[in-house]
Design a protein that fits this description.
It contains 5 helices and 10 strands; from the N terminus they run ααβββαββββααβββ. The protein is an alpha+beta fold. It has a domain of 100 residues. The strands form 2 sheets. Strands 1, 2, 3, 8, 9 and 10 form a 6-stranded mixed sheet that branches. Strands 4, 5, 6 and 7 form a 4-stranded antiparallel sheet that branches. Helix 2 packs antiparallel against helix 3. The longest helix is centred in the N-terminal third of the chain and has 32 residues. It is elongated.
Length: 250
């Protein structure tokens, strides 16, 4: 009987502790969410479409939203990532920090939309009678193995009967772009050193990879595809060019 009494006391104490935790920690957050739009989910739904719209254009054009030096292919301006205007010479790498560059291009498109989404969220809460404070914040984009992470650091404070603070919001999208960019960088290194690349070597290490290599006059257009996820990356090179008429016997 004594043991049962002690057990009952422990159960009651545990219930009380859980109840206090719910009141102090969980209940304020529930009041913000119930009947309203949850901030993290709202911003994710708002920002994801612009990421999905940006990636196909970016990856079809060599990682550039506005290519500066390119060859036209299937209606796209495919950026040269390695280029030379001289005959007989290997190309010069045009973008040595390819992953960082693509991250900055994604950020360029996402940041204005993220700020607009945050303003829309603020207006939504204010119509519900909340007092809202929003920090300026900034967007950071990270391309890592298997994912693209977009993080929006913007303090967002919601006040009515109590106060709830959200300090940052994150949108994660599954993508094999990191591996494709790493392979592209390696191919470019071969082109800049030897004037060409042997693409079959990569297939031993990347069984899901498909490489299309198209010679178009003096240009080479590479299309890298993950055949499982269908992620793609296309870029162009111009390297070790032979002058017109070279090797022709008269």
């Amino acid at each position: 009987m004594e043991r049962r009494g002690q057990l009952s006391v422990f159960v009651i104490v545990a219930i009380v502790i859980v109840g206090i935790f719910l009141i102090i920690v969980v209940y304020p957050r529930i009041k913000v969410i119930v009947g309203e739009v949850e901030p993290n989910g709202y911003l994710k739904d708002c920002i994801t479409p612009v990421i999905d719209e940006t990636l196909p254009r970016l990856t079809a054009q060599g990682g550039y939203l506005e290519p500066t030096s390119y060859v036209l292919y299937q209606g796209d301006k495919v950026q040269y990532l390695c280029y030379t205007a001289e005959d007989y010479k290997p190309c010069i790498v045009q973008q040595p920090l390819l992953v960082s560059h693509v991250e900055s291009e994604i950020k360029k498109e996402v940041e204005p939309k993220a700020r607009a989404c945050l303003d829309e969220l603020k207006a939504l809460y204010e119509r519900k009678g909340y007092s809202v404070s929003v920090g300026r914040g900034d967007v950071s984009v990270g391309i890592v193995t298997g994912k693209i992470n977009v993080e929006f650091n913007a303090p967002f404070t919601v006040t009515k009967d109590n106060t709830q603070v959200f300090r940052k919001f994150q949108v994660t999208r599954d993508s094999e772009l990191y591996d494709l960019l790493a392979i592209a960088t390696n191919i470019i290194q071969f082109e800049s050193t030897l004037g060409d690349s042997e693409t079959s070597l990569y297939l031993q290490y990347y069984p899901d990879l498909k490489i299309e290599k198209l010679k178009k006059e003096a240009d080479t257009i590479y299309t890298l595809t993950n055949v499982v996820t269908n992620d793609k990356f296309r870029f162009a090179t111009r390297s070790l060019v032979w002058p017109s008429g070279y090797g022709v016997i008269k």
